[in-house]
Amino acid sequence: MMRRMTRLVDHQTIWPWLLLLPLAVYLLVFFAVPLIEVLKMSVTEPKPGLGNYQKVFTGALYGKVFLNTFGTATLVTVCCLIVGYPLAYLMSNTTPRRAMMILLLITMSFWTSFLVRTYAWMVLLGNNGPIIWLIEMIGIADPPGLLFTRFSSTLAMVHILAPYMIMNIYSVMKKIDPVLIRSAESMGARGGSLFRHIYLPLTAPGIANGAVLVFVICLGFYVTPVLLGSPREQMVAGLIGNQIEQFLAFGLGSAMAVVLLVITLIVLGIYHSRFGLDKLWG
Amino acid sequence: MNTFVRWLGYLFVIFIAAPLLVVVPMSFSTSSSLEFPPPGLSLQYYEKFFSDPAWLRPAWNSILIASATTILTMILVIPATFALVRHRFWGKGIANLMMMMPLAVPHIVMAVGYYSYFGELRLVHTHLGVILAHTCLSVPITFLVLSANLKGFDRTLEQAARSLGASPRRVFLHITLPILRPGLMISALFAFIQSFDETVVAIFISGRGAETLPRKMFDSIRQEADPVIAVVSTLLFVAVILGLLAPQIVKAVQSALGRSARNASE
Description:
The complex is a heterodimer. Chain A has helices spanning about 1-10, 10-45, 50-60, 60-90, 95-110, 115-125, 130-140, 150-175, 180-185, 190-220, 225-230, 235-245, 250-275. Chain A is mainly α. Chain B is an all-alpha fold. Chain B has eleven helices and no strands. The longest helix of chain B is centred in the C-terminal third of the chain and has 38 residues, at about 230-265. Chains A and B meet through helix 1, helix 2, helix 4, helix 5 and helix 6 of A and helix 1, helix 3, helix 4, helix 5 and helix 6 of B.
């Protein structure tokens, strides 16, 4: 203990902490305190106690919304993987020029605001949009509305989050030594077994990274599900927003926020213990 | 198998590209609905955007808030990044975790916190409130970009300057800062974009007083979804393309200037 104290006051420790001090104080006042405020409200509003949590864990609606959120996040993650893997494969197995073009496109999509991409899907899937028109062309008269359904919000979220997956898989896949593939092929590995024994194990870290990022972002996604999703199949973030904005139920909203936060931190914590969080964001 | 996966890849390229392609034609539409392809072409929604204070004010607010957020974030993050990259000290792990925390907390959770906390401080619906909140959210990405740059910094250059008799201050101003400038610019750009794009917290705390562009777009999509959104989207889109191509443009201009200078000297 003594030794730790003396180490704490020596020059080598003081100087870096002095550099860190402004930011640490700032984050304490404007990040930690509001977060604690959420925790506090969840057990004090409208009256002290664990009533809000009881509601969250036993109310049929809330359980359904949490399940729905989990299901959607899982579905979106799987779809992102289905989209991301062939794309990353294509990029690492084509001419550098073409790979560059695709990379530029994905970067462009990535940098385009969530709202812009959500709006674009609204146009594409709308009743006067090209996809409905195409369905009618095929001969299906009076197709069902695509907008404001679980389908439209899931599709848009896959589109919005896919770049995270693609970038992560691509960054590991382009490092795979082509000699490895050729030698595996020369020994008779084809299609499925080449994938199972070479590609899958070598790209696993990229998949894990991408999947955790997509899953975690999707759990707390607010904008797209609210704008494109079905009001009857809300996700947690949308429901929290409702509680605060419409019903002014700060306690209940906060309790749900805390549960969402804990789940998010658990997922990130599992990732951290296995791979280290600093690798997640590159 | 190989060709199949490849074709699947191309299919998904279309999936990624398609939404980006519908936005621009939509902005020139004559229709007030989500009709695509648009029935006719006009500039009426551009006119509406550039003449309507209900759109211009949020755009201006966003630029103002993002600029202030960038400055504040850089002031806080630069010294902290130097501490974390260049020193080994007690509590470094905790400090690192602290920098990354705002990235781990879903924005909706922070929005609830700010809504109530800034309500007490009377900062809801003010520019200052949004700036203070956005600065927290910009810290992790700015730190990540800057620390990656600082880690690649060749410290022998500083040592050389020191051994030639320069004071630490002089070394910092004349060696460290100029070399680090591109990294500083990029991390500042990330802070700016993070704030400019941030939607969820802004929806809850910016209110009428400090309404940001994403908040206005969100409300507009929810209510009328008219093509002004496509106009804003197109403008943002052009900004992204310019941003991505900026290095190439600068290079092209430089080489053109270099060529004309050579021609002139010949």
